[in-house]
Protein 1
Amino acid sequence: MLFFIANIFLGFAGLLLSLYIAHKKRRKTEHFICPMRGNCHDVIQSDYSKFLGVPVEYLGILYYATMAISYGLRAGFPSLNGPFSIFLLFLSTFAVVFSFYLTFIQLFALRKLCTWCLCSASLTVLIFAFSLASSTDTVFPFLAAAHTPIILIHVVGMALGLGTATLADLFFFKFLKDFRISEMEADVLKIFSQVIWLAIGLIVMSGLGLYLPSADLLLASDAFLMKMIVVGVIILNGAILNLFVAPRFLQIQFGKHVHREGELVQTRRLAFLFGPISVVSWYSAFILGMLDQAPAPFETMWRMYVALLILAVLGGQITERVIDRRAHAKDI
């Protein structure tokens, strides 16, 4: 009961915080108080303040209100425990993953911190911890019983990420046919990027749901270990590509970044480096996830994966050189 009460108060605290951020964001002329020498205004008004077209603070309002009301119902009606507690645990897990994504953006993409955003992230961590503590007696049996639905979510996440990563590369090449990217095309690529992060969130959450009840068995599987490495590459590569390379490339295109001579070409080459790595890794993870058994020993799969990455990188760099030559020929 103590954990329920704690999450009720944390939910209401997060709700008030999200409402405050929404109010300040709507009134752009008002001074935004940001303790700890943060830069709340720039973060709240940045291009990353929306996810799939929805303002992040509205997502926060919906999440915190749901958690406060739901834990109030759990405290008043013990019969709601069981599957309902698992749903709240998964919801709080997704919120933590999303908060990590937003914090990563502040640290590495914007390089500015918002004190209130960090407070919100801390609240999601606490709510997750209390949700987990209040569900320990039901979580493992539920995960074992819900194996098939969790696999379905995992497959949906893999298919969504694979398809979106492929489309993102194809559209990126198409958009560069005129040797520049318009603001509309940049918005399309941004949506692709956010859908990929949504897919990664689904994969991580469902992957944990599959791993926890069968940890010993999965750790002995070469296919599982190889897939974990590939997923790690997807996350790291996606972070570099979508939070550093792509934003810098678009800022230079639209004159929002004072760049040195040759920086645009270097950034474009990085895009053609990490883009192919993304596609190869998504296809590799999808194929490994579909296999019941490893098709080869771990060392062989690792060498094949590295070889595919090298070929993809070479192909990407050759494509970039062709586009660069066509651009120079057009200028002449």
Protein 2
Amino acid sequence: MSCNQPSTQSNQESPETDISVIVPALNEQGNVSRLYERLTEALSKLNVKYEVIFVDDGSTDNTSSELDDIAKQYSNVKVIHLVRNFGQTAAFSAGIDHAKGQILVTLDADLQNDPKDIASLLNKLQSGFDVVSGWRKQRNDPFWTRVLPSWCANKIISFISGISLHDYGCSLKAYRRDTLAGVKLYGEMHRFIPIYAAWMGARIAEVPVTHHKRSMGSSKYGLSRSVKVILDLLTIKFLFDYGTKPSYVFGTLGLTAIALSFVSLAWALVLKYAFQTSLIKTPLPLLAVLLFTVGVQLVLMGLLAEVMVRTYHEAQGKRIYVIKDTRNI
């Protein structure tokens, strides 16, 4: 598949779909039409047959009707309307489940991602890589509320995962379809697909991409999202390292707690017999044991709940989204 030659009629008649572009949209009235125009302009220059899948993630403005109008005009546009707002990860998951392309490209609907950069991602993908992630090297976002928290989160994610990327939060990514086989997405985990893929042996690359300032609508991101991202990362790290041997992490924490309880008891005895301090007068050993025990219980309950949620969904084949209606599917 060449990315440098103009499209031909024979290629358009091919039954194969080369590329599926997946775009989640939440209250992006006015942006989705302009985005489709830019996608058409960029993708028509490539020698590929493509489809565009818009996932309406419970929009409350006119985004839904605007997407339906686009789908009526163009048969290669698919629209999935979710019954409510399930979040960006669920929207991406719905798009991936209904995609037919051998290569999947994801991007945001807010026009901050530039469709012209898709060609760069595809060229890099053809160099032998399995996942190519965009890097917003020059971001047009507020520094204190968006850029700095994102930079910190990226550093933490790279440290925990062992996969070095500059920009996990950039939605503009390209994947070979088989790379996503068996990947289940929850929470805010769509940004961690490169980590999943790398852990399974896939080759990961990163290319700088253009980042435009938002011109319409409002951002759906905030500082609280960085906290959720870190918690999701800890979850997938736990599932990957200890999913089949949870006793290692539970046992380690349990033994640590027991050891600390003996240390606390020993120090309390030292205070009593060496310094004549009554155990009743010092609440520190009890407080330390209580706080540590509660902390361990909360962490373990959270991890156990994550495993139970995945078992609930995957064992019964349940999805993390509910479709209200579709177009051209």
Protein 3
Amino acid sequence: MLIKTENECKIKLLELIEKFPRAAILTHVEPDGDGLAAALALQELFPHLQIMLEGKGSSKYDYLNVQNRTKICQKNLQFDLLIILDCHEHSRLGICDHLSKKAKAIIAIDHHIQGNLIPEAFTYIDTKLASVGAILFNMFKERIKQLAKASQKYVADSLYTTILNDTDNFINANTTAATFDMCAELMRLGLVPGEIANKFLHSHSANEMKLIGQSLATIQTYEDGKFLFFYTTKKMLDNLNLTAEATGGLSRWVKGITGVIASVRLQEIEPNKYKVHLRSNHLNVNKIATKYGGGGHKKASGCDMNGDLNTIRDTLLRDLKEQL
């Protein structure tokens, strides 16, 4: 059931939290700085909520104490209420999706383009806001102000992380005057922007920088430089003793290249299977992602594809050319 307004979503969420105290927060597979940090902020507001992940929380979010605030999803777990953030589809919940089969109520809050809704869930989607964290801030700003100072700062740091992640440090087209107004309000709650930006965006190990270099060295362009492709292989990761977690944010390194109207990053998951990251300020890459079972935003989307590197590249090139 689609919820039409932000206020209706807030009322329904509070009603469900009160009715079903045994509750968990979920986000999508490979949780990012929006879904995960938004979950941490919501948990600070409602401390009894448990955050369930597919695996151990990324060390990238140690500044938000992620390890102590999240748990790994197990088959024998059961919750009466599931709160799904930054996602509204069964297919993107990964191994945590089994929890939905036992839940008495589900509410999903998202800002991605509507895909296959979870039939049994109350769902609220606002594509106009930069992050799902921004939706939570609008709903609970007065409640946040009633927290102790330390908690206010924690929520502010978490929500700022969601904005940094999904605006790519304010360079994406989803950055609006309202986005900056929100950041100013977060500063009044204790946020120090440079402190969080350095921790979230600039804390790379030497091997992670090598991975960035090796990935960028694979760049190839097509159609007179309009389309840019680059990739990361498992061998690169293995040789540098890194995991797939280290590939997060790689797409931002090719933004702004002269003449490029769309970029594609291919990340090898296993032999003949790749995760595809599509970015464009000119084309609707969500149409391409949804074609292959993925989704996201009009200008930033992703999906998984099977096949060898060259076949996937040629397939995506045809799809991109169709939009010229």
